[in-house]
Amino acid sequence: MKARQSALIVGGTWISHMRILKSLFSTVCGPAAMGILLALGQPAAAQQRALTWDEVKARFEAANPALKADALNVDEMHAEEITAFLRPNPQFNFGVDGTQFPPHKGGWSPLVSDQYQSTVSYLHERQHKRELRLESAVEGTRITQSQHEDLERNMIFNLRDAFVQTLQAKAVLELAKADLEYYDKIIDISRNRLRAGDIAQIDFDRIELLRVQYESEIETAIVNLRTAKIQLLQLLNERTPVDQFDVNGPFDFSDALKPLEDFRQIALDARPDLRAALQTVEQSKTNHKLAISNGSTDPTYSVWWTHNPSFNNIGVDDNTLGLGFNIPLRIFDRNQGEKKRTLIDIDRSQQLTDAARAQVFSDVDSAYEQMRSNIALLKPYKEKYRDQATRVRDTVTYAYLHGGASLMDFLNAQSDYRVVQLAYVQLIGSYLTAASQLNLAVGREVIQ
């Protein structure tokens, strides 16, 4: 009692201090600062709220390190476009020759006969080599961007799967708690019947002993829920305590399903891996053009200036200017290997594109069939089996409590009810997972 009074005194003192601080803060700093103080005065757990799917997805896209690292790879490819379009650097050479080292005929003038020569040269690239290099680099960036979107597509599926697992674990935990609450009422009634001599001690013991299964189911559901939250926090790269983190969303199904052909067409338009395959074909064609261009001859133009050249005999050619160009004779090396390799690569890319398109159809068809199967199973559960299981449980329970049914009938009815309700929750989870699989196969969210 004293400890409680002390706690009340401490709590009252804290409240009194908070009131004084609020009054001073409101007077000095105004209503806005007052709001901050009120927020700080609330417990940390009260400031947490359940996140929706859109909020979880936004946090994932902003914070996941693997996704952000892959996005930097796209930026690197953009930088390579600059490198691909650079012009060749001009060359500058400067030389000195003719310096007199030993004395000659009694005199030494080491610099009088020096020859100075400077040369500037530049390689001229023909047949649009720079433009083709840039085009190939731009197409490489597009491929990398599509591959990044494909990585995001797969990671979003993993995120959605963890989100669905969390919702399912929450539903299972709520179901287990509701079952235990219902069963505790049965135990209380049975205890009263035992005291009144209406049932035997052994029957009551069997009823009470079954409670351990409900407790075990609750603990298992708690572990599964915390595990699902931990996986979700890992994908979000957050360090929020598990007890302060929660998600919320619809845990139900819809029997409306578009025709298969609609999903196939959406997938052909939206799948980033298929788009990357098509872009690879275009890059292969550009690389073949570049290989042909690289087989052409690029001349090097040069101009030089000399001072006091060695052919200075008349005395009027102290400074001279020269022009020249260099043309490689491409007799043996005409880039034949790259021309053939890039031509083969075009056919290889087309074959991989056909394989990617076939994979798209396979993914969509498999996910669609899984969706259809889940809907077919869920309909009778929602329309019939759940209500039947509840009605049977309540009827047998009432009959047992009034002596009209055996203990075995009562226990079997309880077990059947739990099996049906748990199966329905698991089927909802399977449906939502199949919906995520169909979104993954299509390439964007077509089913929320």
Summarize the structure.
This protein has 448 residues and is an alpha+beta fold.
Using brief descriptors, characterize the structure shown.
448 residues, alpha+beta, Outer membrane efflux proteins (OEP)
Which H/E pattern describes the elements? HHHHEEHHHHHEEHH
The whole-angstrom Rg is 40 Å
How many helices? The count is 11
End-to-end Cα distance, whole Å, is 55 Å
Task: Give the full name of the CATH homologous superfamily of the largest domain.
Answer: Outer membrane efflux proteins (OEP)
CATH arch. level architecture of the largest domain = Up-down Bundle
Biggest β-sheet strands, sense, barrel:
4 strands, antiparallel
| Percentage of residues in strands | 5-15%
Average of pLDDT: 85
Question: Which CATH first-tier class of the largest domain would you pick?
Answer: Mainly Alpha
**Could you say which structural class the secondary elements and strand pairing correspond to?**
alpha+beta
CATH topology of the largest domain: Outer membrane efflux proteins (OEP)
Helicity level: 55-70%
Task: Tell me the number of strands.
Answer: 4
Low-confidence stretches: 1-47
How many discrete domains? Answer: 3
Q: What global shape is seen?
A: elongated
Strand arrangement in the largest pleated sheet: 1-2-3-4
